[in-house]
Amino acid sequence: MGRVAGSYGVRGWVKVIPGGGAGQGLAAAKRWWVGEREYRVAARMHSGTVVAELEGVASREEALKLKGAQVSIERAALADPGEGHYYHADLVGLEVVNGKGESLGNVKRLFSNGAQDVMELSGDRERLLPWVPAVVKEVDLQKRQVTVEWEADW
User: Fold this and answer.
1) Mean pLDDT lowest among 46-50, 81-85, 142-146
2) What are the backbone dihedrals phi and psi of residue 92, each rounded to the nearest 5 degrees, phi first?
């Protein structure tokens, strides 16, 4: 869901860089896993990041020890992403096929290039496909399949 970027202030708060649009979900959650440890948390959005007070972390030095740690929350704490929206974790592993039914590979990961999200596929070869309406035509989580407008030889 994110990564601790460093401390925020002098009272032990941390600044987290959310991944894949997870900022609101992190800010709303009451419990986080930071690295291997679970914390009760009070968090809010701040300039594209999430700042949080972790129970038991009371100084800037303690917060800095968490720098680089992965932040995650339980799936049950996430809100429904809404129609036509998906959590990246739900898409990883799905098969990607084009309109002709040709398999292009499986979703290895999604990331942002600054302009849009991008799917990285693994299969007969590595591929990068933009996650935009002109390319992504249908997502079927039940079938575990993403249909795209993309030729196999591109």
Assistant:
1) 81-85
2) -60, 130
- Interval 89-102: pLDDT, tens: 889 999 999 999 99
Pick the CATH number of 2-76 from 1.20.1050.10, 2.40.30.60, 3.30.565.10, 2.120.10.30: 2.40.30.60
Q: What is the pLDDT of residues 5-41, one digit of tens each?
A: 999 999 999 999 987 667 888 899 999 999 999 999 9
Phi and psi (nearest 5°) for 109? -165, 165
Distance CA 126, CA 25 (A): 30
Q: How many C-beta atoms lie closer than 10 Å to residue 73's C-beta? A: 20
